[in-house]
From TrEMBL:
Protein name per Swiss-Prot or TrEMBL: Alpha/beta hydrolase
Alphabetical UniProt keywords: Hydrolase
Coiled coil: none
Ranges for domain AB hydrolase-1: 16-237
Xref: Pfam families: Abhydrolase_6 (PF12697)
Domain of life where this protein originates: Bacteria
GO molecular function terms attached to this record: hydrolase activity
InterPro entries: AB_hydrolase_1, AB_hydrolase_fold, Sec-Metab_Biosynth_Hydrolase
């Protein structure tokens, strides 16, 4: 792992945002490695209620962290930091981990339709839940536990995947169908980890989005939950980003902008 001494004294706090079907506990391995390197890291809960609501919540959480922040998003969490970072005002860089980096107006359901690597839609289970507003309900999606290991966490043990399947948090359908806002990657430097065996978000979609964002890309073998199976890979990219920021990394010239 890169020597933490190369990072300036004003090292940003690393804020880790989880995605759908998960929670903040998935970041423990990464947090332990960063702490060992003398880097402050905190996991920010993602409500999983939809692009608009989740982005507003995460933007507020990021803004309340003292000093500069490096925002790290996994999967759907990547879409949320894309929307939230500019609003927060203190985010200086972005790290995408097997994550979506949508452009303005894009909907994740349409983005995923263009993937030949993702098989997530074949494993989703839909249920209706009340919103608490009159008789309104909202659709929520979870992953069929019988498919969780194969689709989401192939490089974990069957027991680990079964535990994740049993504790997964469903995501509102609004996360897939609400349009995304102006993306922070157009003004902030970004880095991305692409897992070549990602059959959830789809390695092809993740790679294309990272390339369009002008991210510094690290591509490695792994499933959608590489950050759990191989936390060192993710921690190293985060340290790489912090080191670049300490040396005054400029915002990328994003393709397609």
């Amino acid at each position: 792992m890169t020597d933490a001494n190369v990072v300036a004294p004003t090292t940003p706090t690393v804020a880790l945002v989880h995605g759908a079907f998960a929670d903040s506990s998935g970041w423990v391995g990464v947090i332990d490695l960063l702490r060992a390197a003398g880097i402050d890291a905190v996991a920010v809960s993602n409500p999983l209620r939809g692009i608009a609501e989740d982005s507003a919540y995460v933007a507020s959480a990021l803004a309340q962290l003292p000093g500069p922040v490096l925002a790290v998003g996994h999967s759907y969490g990547g879409a949320i930091i894309t929307n939230a970072a500019a609003r927060a005002g203190n985010v200086v860089g972005l790290v995408y981990v097997s994550a979506f980096a949508p452009d303005e107006g894009e909907k994740l359901i349409e983005v995923e339709a263009g993937s030949t690597d993702s098989v997530l839609d074949t494993a989703l289970v839909e249920r209706q839940y009340p919103t608490g507003q009159g008789g309104e309900t909202v659709a929520e999606f979870s992953i069929d536990p019988a498919r969780f290991h194969q689709v989401f966490a192939a490089d974990l043990t069957e027991e680990q995947a079964a535990d994740m399947a049993a504790t997964q948090r469903p995501v509102s359908s609004l996360g897939f169908v609400e349009p995304n806002g102006p993306p922070a990657w157009k003004t902030l430097p970004s880095w991305a980890v692409v897992s070549t065996g990602d059959t959830a978000a789809g390695a092809d979609v993740v790679r294309r989005m990272a390339q369009r964002a002008g991210a510094v890309i690290t591509e490695t073998e792994g499933s959608h939950v590489l950050f759990i199976a191989r936390p060192q890979v993710v921690a190293d990219v985060i340290v790489q980003a912090l080191s670049a920021l300490s040396q005054g990394a400029a915002a990328p010239a994003a393709a397609g902008v």
